[in-house]
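Progress report, Aim 2. The chain analyzed during this reporting quarter is listed below.
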Amino acid sequence: MNFNQISPAWKAKRRFGRRGSQRYYRRRYLLGRDLGILEEGAIVSETLEQVRDALHRLQAGSYGTCTVCGRHIEHARLEAVPWTPYWLGQQITHEIVARDSFR
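Predicted structure tokens for the chain:
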């Protein structure tokens, strides 16, 4: 077996003993937890930006219309997600394009 094919946890355990593997998993856990906090912060930041954009549209008099095609956004959708810039059909299209761009 090639040494590069062995898991990092096993390498740490072999090199530093039991404490090495414990350190590896603790660092991995802490890094994952920090990344989760960063992702959560990004989501909050993105939502805040969307709310600010909705307030600007409200002041400009264009709140309730799709920012892409100008179609009216359904009242129930605005009650559920008041900061949405798209009507439902455009939102679905937007999400499909975003999903396919990450592939």
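The chain has two domains: 1-63, 64-103. Helices lie at 8-16, 18-60, 75-80, 88-101. These observations will guide the mutagenesis work planned for the next reporting period.
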